[in-house]
């Protein structure tokens, strides 16, 4: 079922809707308008009043939630530190002093509310001597128990304390002597969870510091060296004690202050008190600026859970809350509504005529826009966010041969060539919002032809639509393809011409060299024959002179035609390793998904071949067998034979469908014809690699064997320290004859 509508139906709906609206306006009396606007005014007054009150409640709740969340976050940060130290003791059999100070010092420095973090092992009174010996071995040379009186069989003396500047004051202090701490310690290792002490004084000099202590139990699977206390959770190793300054802890929720903190005041009470008494233990910084007794507009009580205890948080609005101009807004709305009602009563009659003129003007503009859409040669369409045709102008018929109503509700990608559908889907999902971008797509016409359409697309997330303007660029794409084909043909022809020229030059040099050597021997033997003594000397001299004259004539022809033609100088020796290293770097930049592995090459192996030609040939070969976006593993193996002075290069890679089609095309058609039929560039790269390797006096063989692509060619190779530095010298035939 189509989800879109054609232009004719859209224009008909707009015209019908406007006519209906005009009739309704003509039948609405001015008195009904007055009563209606008055009713709206009263409704707005009530809704505005309710909204302001709800906004005040929401603002207050948001302020309370912000403070509670920050307090809870501060507590979770402290609890996370204890949990991490618990995990540290659970991961190691023994935690030494340096490790404890390393893990605990940073949280203490980062949190100003944490006074100390200490580790107190569980020590039985009967094993106190062994523990003191161990504590002094931990570089606490003057470690002693404080207070020295033992009041219980279990001791929890502090061994490690951070910050270290507080260690001299607390190291050795028996936490079990303090009743609140002892009760929290017993609950911690008995219940196997974090516990907290009541709100208590932590420091008494010079000023009293109030706060609480968090206790975390530590267990081990085997009995401790200083105690054998066992619970349901394991053998008790000791406890971790974290002292938290209550005033700093509360004030940390207001530093830095949030914008809404000035709207509320906070009072903190300890709920665990005897006989139900309440004692205020902390307050927000702005509470001192508020009278002690006042009636807040809103108030709320929250609880802050600290381990196994809770604090009661009483929040209240400040006296200035809700006393601004907002309380007059509902009455201003009501007065403005009444005034508007009487203005609308006098304006309704003139509005009818003005509306009629506006409708006529809008219909005229709509007709003008319709003519532009119908006369445009560009495709003007609207797509849905999921790629469906919503509307399209008649230009689609002239460009692709489809009727506009035939496409409504169908997928846009159905007209796109299958190989380009992924590009369309990626462009739709990754398109920027409200920013135009260009996209060129090959599309199938109704007659089966492939047409290139250049789309100018704009995606609107607010509308959930994609606005598209398309133009036929088939001729431009064909011209670009022809230009690229011509460029590739010229490049290949240049390489073939250079290979033929180099082959001819090398052949002529070798032919001249062989002729000069042969004629040199012929002249030598002719001179020897001429100087011999024969019974028929005149006859021998006659033949000898004839041989000499013929040889001299041939030698003069060869010498004159090949004057200055010497055998080519040997190429300088080039190391193989740097060539392959540079090639691997370039391949990683051009094909990030490809990975090249090289085998059989060492730093001492070198080749006298042209290094630049070898680099270009290998680069073209690797680019030809590597697809653009598919991960692929390539290997290059060099099997060298130093005795023969040659090496066989074998490059293997998975045979992709793209490369197999290119090889089949190269086998079935001539090189230029195969190059013309290939649009991917694979055939061009393979032909270029073959041409460059032919210039190196070798032949490239590419075959597909068992879903693997194998490329093989042979080049001269040698060790660098055995490379001959001297160049060969070939004497001319005339000089050889003179020597003979």
Structural key phrases:
47% helix, alpha+beta, 740 residues, 7-stranded antiparallel sheet, Beta-Lactamase, disordered C terminus
Task: Describe this protein's structure.
It contains 19 helices and 26 strands. The strands form six sheets. Strands 1, 4, 5, 6, 7, 8 and 9 form a seven-stranded antiparallel beta sheet that branches. Strands 15-14-18-17-16 form a five-stranded antiparallel beta sheet, with helices on both faces. A hairpin with a 2-residue loop joins strand 12 (299-306) and strand 13. The chain is of the alpha+beta class and 740 residues long. Helix 2 (30-91) packs across helix 8. Among the domains are: 89-252, CHASE domain (Beta-Lactamase), CATH 3.30.450; 377-471, Beta-Lactamase, CATH 3.30.450; 479-561; 574-722, Histidine kinase-like ATPase, C-terminal domain (Heat Shock Protein 90, 2-Layer Sandwich), CATH 3.30.565.10.
CATH superfamily of one domain: CHASE domain
- Any idea what the radius of gyration is? 48 Å
Number of helices: 19
What's the architecture of one domain in CATH terms?
Answer: 2-Layer Sandwich
Largest sheet: 7 strands, antiparallel
Distance between the termini: 103 Å
Quote the CATH topology of one domain: Beta-Lactamase
Helix-strand category: alpha+beta
Please indicate the percent range of residues in DSSP E strands (runs of 2 or more).
15-25%
Short description:
This protein is α+β, with helices and mostly antiparallel strands and 740 residues long.
Blueprint (SSEs and pairs):
Layout: H1 7-27, H2 30-91, H3 97-110, E1 114-121, E2 123-124, H4 128-137, E3 154-155, E4 160-162, H5 167-170, H6 179-191, E5 195-196, E6 200-203, E7 209-220, E8 230-231, E9 234-245, H7 246-252, E10 264-270, E11 279-283, E12 299-306, E13 309-317, H8 329-375, E14 379-384, E15 389-392, H9 395-400, H10 404-407, H11 421-430, E16 437-444, E17 450-460, E18 465-472, H12 474-531, H13 537-561, E19 574-575, H14 576-590, E20 594-599, E21 605-607, H15 611-625, E22 632-641, E23 646-654, H16 657-668, H17 671-677, H18 682-695, E24 701-705, E25 708-716, E26 718-719, H19 733-739
Helix pairs in contact: 1-8, 2-8, 12-13, 12-18, 12-19, 14-15, 15-18, 16-17
């Amino acid at each position: 079922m189509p989800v879109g509508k054609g232009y004719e139906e859209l224009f008909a709906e707009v015209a019908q809707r406007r006519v209906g609206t005009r009739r309704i306006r003509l039948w609405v009396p001015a008195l009904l308008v007055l009563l209606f606007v008055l009713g709206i005014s009263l409704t707005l007054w009530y809704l505005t009043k309710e909204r302001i009150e709800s906004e005040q409640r929401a603002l207050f709740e948001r302020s309370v939630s912000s403070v509670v969340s920050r307090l809870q976050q501060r507590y979770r940060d402290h609890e996370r530190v204890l949990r991490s130290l618990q995990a540290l003791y659970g991961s190691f059999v023994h935690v030494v002093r340096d490790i404890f100070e390393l893990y605990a010092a940073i949280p203490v420095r980062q949190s100003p509310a944490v006074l100390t973090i200490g580790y107190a092992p569980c020590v039985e009174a009967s094993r106190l001597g062994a523990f003191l010996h161990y504590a002094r071995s931990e570089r606490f040379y003057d470690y002693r128990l404080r207070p020295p009186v033992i009041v219980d069989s279990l001791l929890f003396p502090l061994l490690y304390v951070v910050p270290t500047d507080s260690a001299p004051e607390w190291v050795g202090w028996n936490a079990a002597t303090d009743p609140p701490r002892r009760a929290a310690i017993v609950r911690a290792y008995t219940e196997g969870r974090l516990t907290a002490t009541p709100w208590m004084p932590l420091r008494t000099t010079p000023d009293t510091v109030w706060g609480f202590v968090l206790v975390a139990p530590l267990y081990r699977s085997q009995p401790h060296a200083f105690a054998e206390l066992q619970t349901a959770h394991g053998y008790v190793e000791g406890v971790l004690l974290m002292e938290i300054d209550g005033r700093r802890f509360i004030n940390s929720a207001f530093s830095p202050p949030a914008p809404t903190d000035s709207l509320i005041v906070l009072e903190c009470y300890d709920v665990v008190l005897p006989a139900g008494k309440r004692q205020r233990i902390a307050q927000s910084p702005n509470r001192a600026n508020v009278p002690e007794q006042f009636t807040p507009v809103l108030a709320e009580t929250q609880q802050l859970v600290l381990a196994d205890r809770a604090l009661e948080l009483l929040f209240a609005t400040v006296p200035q809350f809700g006393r601004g101009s907002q309380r007059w807004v509902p009455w201003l709305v009501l007065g403005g509504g009444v005034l508007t009602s009487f203005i609308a009563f006098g304006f309704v009659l003139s509005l009818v005529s003005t509306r009629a003129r506006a409708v006529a003007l809008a219909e005229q503009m709509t007709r003008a826009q319709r003519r532009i859409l119908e006369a445009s040669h560009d495709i003007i369409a609207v797509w849905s966010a999921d790629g469906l045709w919503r509307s399209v102008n008649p230009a689609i018929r002239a460009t692709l041969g489809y009727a506009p109503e035939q496409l409504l509700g169908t997928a846009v990608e159905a007209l796109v060539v299958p190989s380009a559908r992924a590009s369309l889907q990626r462009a739709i999902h990754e398109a920027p919002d409200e920013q135009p971008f260009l996209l060129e797509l090959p599309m199938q016409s109704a007659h089966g032809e492939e047409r290139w359409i250049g789309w100018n697309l704009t995606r609107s997330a607010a509308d959930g639509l994609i606005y598209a303007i398309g133009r036929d660029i088939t001729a431009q794409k064909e011209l670009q393809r022809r230009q690229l084909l011509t460029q590739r043909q010229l490049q290949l022809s240049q390489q073939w011409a250079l290979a033929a020229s180099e082959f001819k030059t090398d052949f002529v040099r070798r032919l001249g060299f062989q002729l000069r050597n042969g004629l040199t021997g012929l002249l030598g033997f002719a001179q020897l024959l001429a100087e011999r003594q024969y019974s028929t000397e005149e006859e021998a001299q006659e033949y000898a002179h004839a041989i000499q004259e013929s040889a001299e004539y041939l030698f003069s022809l060869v010498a004159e035609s090949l004057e200055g033609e010497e055998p080519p100088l040997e190429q300088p020796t080039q190391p193989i390793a740097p060539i392959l290293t540079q090639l691997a770097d370039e391949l990683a930049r051009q094909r990030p998904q490809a990975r090249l592995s090289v085998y059989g090459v060492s730093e001492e192996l070198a080749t006298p071949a042209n290094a630049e030609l070898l680099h270009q040939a290998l680069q073209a070969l690797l680019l030809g067998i590597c697809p653009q976006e598919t991960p692929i593993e390539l290997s290059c193996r060099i099997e060298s034979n130093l005795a023969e002075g040659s090496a066989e290069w074998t490059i293997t890679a998975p045979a992709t469908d793209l490369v197999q089609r290119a090889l089949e095309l190269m086998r079935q058609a001539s090189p230029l014809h195969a190059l013309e039929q290939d649009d991917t560039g694979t055939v061009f790269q393979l032909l270029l690699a073959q041409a460059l390797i032919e210039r190196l006096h070798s032949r490239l063989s590419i075959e597909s064997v068992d879903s693997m692509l194998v490329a093989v060619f042979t080049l001269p190779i040698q060790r660098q320290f055995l490379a001959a530095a001297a160049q060969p010298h070939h004497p001319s035939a005339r000089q050889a004859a003179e020597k003979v």
